[in-house]
Write a structure and sequence with these properties.
64% helix, globular, disordered C terminus
């Protein structure tokens, strides 16, 4: 309260501002605040109301344009959504990613698509062959991951689906001329901020008991890079040229991902 009163006297606070917006401005550690808020509102059974309010405020920010909507990861809305998905989606992650992650750990294959990073010491005689074989291997893992994701609508927690539907509708209302933006917005959470971090950190997300070694880490990183491009729904070539061989696969997934998002939010968007 003293902080708030000082801000009002200094003319730096709009007295009509919402408590959540004020809270976001006051807190320096958004992650800690998100951790606390999500658990309180989950316990009260009002988490969806919290997320609805946060995202309604988020889209009104002048810094949020169609090009960067929901891309600023340090906001309270983004952190709360991350926490919510982590808490309620653990079993979902295990069902979707568990099989392929275990396969990557079990294979222990040396995968490197960047020719400049191919090193000796693994009985490597031909760098081109290593890159070619690695690309095929990564593509195989990606097919397993994407097949599981695209078939996972019924396994996705109902609360996450409702929240995705809210985001989908919100973006459709605020950006009616940007027909793909509602799909990109949902992908930003489900793929970029949920599946991709889990692929990169399996132990942190309870997908494996052990931390990956360097070889496995690189395989996971290459898979995550491709998934990031799929999650942006972009057909532009990756800035990393060694990822270009996967571009046809990435482009192919765009149609399937869009249909997946439609299915995910169908509960409240039957006519979308």
């Amino acid at each position: 309260q003293p902080w708030y009163q000082r801000r009002v006297r200094a003319g730096k606070v709009n007295t009509g501002i919402t408590p959540l917006a004020l809270l976001e401005e006051a807190m320096t550690d958004q992650m800690e605040m998100a951790y606390i808020l999500v658990r309180i509102f989950l316990g009260k059974g009002k988490i969806e109301g919290l997320l609805n309010m946060l995202f309604a405020l988020e889209v009104k920010k002048p810094t949020n344009t169609a090009d960067n909507l929901f891309r600023q990861g340090d906001t309270l809305a983004m952190k709360c959504m991350d926490q919510y998905m982590r808490i309620t989606g653990t079993l979902y992650l295990q069902n979707v990613l568990g099989k392929t992650i275990k396969e990557i750990y079990s294979d222990k294959m040396y995968c490197e698509m960047d020719k400049s990073r191919v090193t000796r010491g693994y009985r490597i005689l031909n760098k081109d062959a290593v890159v070619r074989n690695s690309t095929n291997r990564i593509r195989s893992y990606l097919k397993g991951i994407m097949n599981s994701i695209l078939q996972s609508k019924s396994a996705c927690p109902f609360g996450i689906r409702r929240t995705c539907a809210m985001i989908f509708n919100l973006v459709q209302t605020t950006h009616p001329d940007q027909t793909d933006l509602k799909y990109i917005a949902v992908c930003n959470f489900v793929i970029l901020r949920f599946f991709v971090p889990a692929i990169m950190n399996p132990k942190l997300f309870y997908l494996h008991n052990d931390h990956p070694n360097m070889r496995i880490s690189r395989t996971l990183m290459l898979c995550a890079k491709a998934m990031q491009q799929i999650g942006t729904m972009s057909t532009q070539p990756s800035k990393e040229s060694f990822m270009i061989p996967l571009l046809p696969f990435v482009e192919q997934q765009g149609v399937y991902v869009k249909q997946f998002i439609k299915n995910l939010v169908t509960l409240y968007n039957c006519n979308s």
